[in-house]
Design a protein that fits this description.
Elements: E1 3-7, E2 12-16, E3 24-29, E4 32-37, H1 43-63, H2 72-87, H3 93-111, H4 121-132, H5 149-168, H6 196-220, H7 225-242, H8 248-253, E5 259-263, E6 270-278, E7 281-286, H9 292-302, H10 316-326, H11 340-352, H12 357-363, H13 368-374, H14 385-388
Antiparallel strand pairs: 1-2, 2-3, 3-4, 5-6, 6-7
Length: 394
């Protein structure tokens, strides 16, 4: 027969099996029966062990730590082990690295030791509050800015992927609701772009920058030829991006063999036909005639091999310096302009000219919904006055 004793008001039971001098203890906690050996043959020492074990379990449960179940860190490690393999190279390496970085820097420090079953809408909201709380900084340093709405959104995407991994492996029953409360639909704002007048101001400034670099080279000799090359590359890149709508990362991966100068049968214009490789895989783009001359200058200047990159460097510092000098770094709503703004300008220019929105979406490898949400919303040409100002016949 077993010898049994109950302690802590019956919440913990001690028992000793036949032919064994060692006491065992058990309890029912968090929906499960839990058992452990005390490794003691004396009843008093076994009771002390059982009490410490039980209160340790209570403490773990209160702190949200795992009690004999998988933790968030286990799911995160499993996700990182399989994500890149299962996507089979279809995801950009930087995109994959960003997931791993968010897990390492933000998600694991907060959720790492939590049992997967304890992660819910409340704990995710506590995480958001923790991230938005101003970080402590030294007196000599400026206060650190809290993360933006889009940054928190990306972290929630990574969190959801980890929890889905736990569900697939049977460590979690379902993914909890981790959507943002209160502020579910943010204000729709247009993306920073250059109006036609601002775009003219920009390419005039980059052209003037080339003239100044050449003038300085004439005075100082060959030592400044590198600055001339950088200035010329930037000027042609501004014109190229604004007339093709390529994303900056797509332009950085572009090789000369991906670009072909053709005579367009539909318009009779000479344009570029581009094979684009980017976050949407391989797609195609047909430029405006304004992109042909900058590309011809790039070919004549660089004498490239077919596999050479069209834009081997990004010239971000020089581009930002020119924006600051021209007062173009921010638009009137405070949106920061970058090289990406040239893609936004291309789409806006095409809409202003009355181009078909579906064809623009195909040419830019995006969706009509994205264009309507972020571009057409702020263009007066997207409004049809004849349809708005209708009157009934009297």
């Amino acid at each position: 027969m077993e010898e049994k004793h109950a302690i802590l008001g019956g919440r913990v039971h001690l028992y000793r099996r036949n032919r064994s001098p060692i006491w065992q203890c058990s309890t029912y906690l968090a929906g499960k029966n839990r058992r452990v050996s005390t490794r003691e043959d004396g009843l008093s020492r076994a009771k002390e062990f059982a009490e410490d074990w039980y209160f340790d379990l209570l403490g773990k449960r209160k702190r949200g730590e795992a009690i004999g179940e998988r933790t968030f860190k286990d799911a995160a490690n499993q996700f990182m082990a399989e994500y890149e393999v299962l996507t089979d190279g279809e995801r950009n390496a930087r995109w994959v690295g960003d997931h791993y970085r968010r897990i390492r820097l933000y998600l694991n420090p907060f959720f790492g030791d939590m049992a997967l079953s304890t992660i819910n809408a409340g704990t995710v909201q506590a995480y958001r509050i923790e991230r938005l709380r101003p970080a402590e900084s030294d007196e000599d340093e400026p206060p650190k800015k809290p993360p933006s709405r889009s940054t928190l959104h990306h972290e929630a995407v990574t969190l959801r992927l980890v929890l889905k991994t736990a569900v697939r492996h049977g460590w979690l029953q379902f993914v909890p609701d981790i959507s943002m409360p209160y502020k579910t639909s943010g204000k729709v704002v247009h993306r920073a772009w250059f109006s036609p007048a601002e775009y003219k101001q920009l390419y005039t400034a980059t052209r003037e920058n080339v003239r100044q670099a050449r003038s300085k080279q004439t005075k100082d000799g060959e030592g400044t030829s590198r600055y001339v090359s950088v200035a010329e590359q930037l000027h042609d890149k501004v014109l190229f991006l604004a007339n093709t709508g390529l994303r900056p990362d797509e332009a950085n991966q572009l090789e000369y063999r991906d670009v072909e100068i053709i005579a367009d049968e539909a318009t009779g214009d000479t344009i570029l036909e581009i094979q684009v490789r980017g976050k949407r895989g391989v797609g195609y783009c047909k430029s405006t005639p304004g992109a042909v001359r900058p590309f011809q200058r790039l070919v004549a200047r660089n004498q490239p091999q077919p596999t050479d990159r069209v834009f081997p460097s990004d010239q971000k510092k020089l581009f930002n310096r020119i924006l600051d000098e021209q007062g173009l770094k921010f638009d009137r709503d405070g949106n920061r302009r970058t090289l990406y703004s040239l893609r936004h300008s291309y789409i806006s220019f095409r809409l202003l000219e009355g181009a078909d929105i579906y064809q623009i979406a195909k040419n830019c490898r995006t969706s009509v919904e994205m264009i309507e949400k972020h571009y057409a919303v702020h263009l007066k040409n997207s409004l049809d006055a004849a349809a708005i100002n209708r009157r009934r016949a009297r």
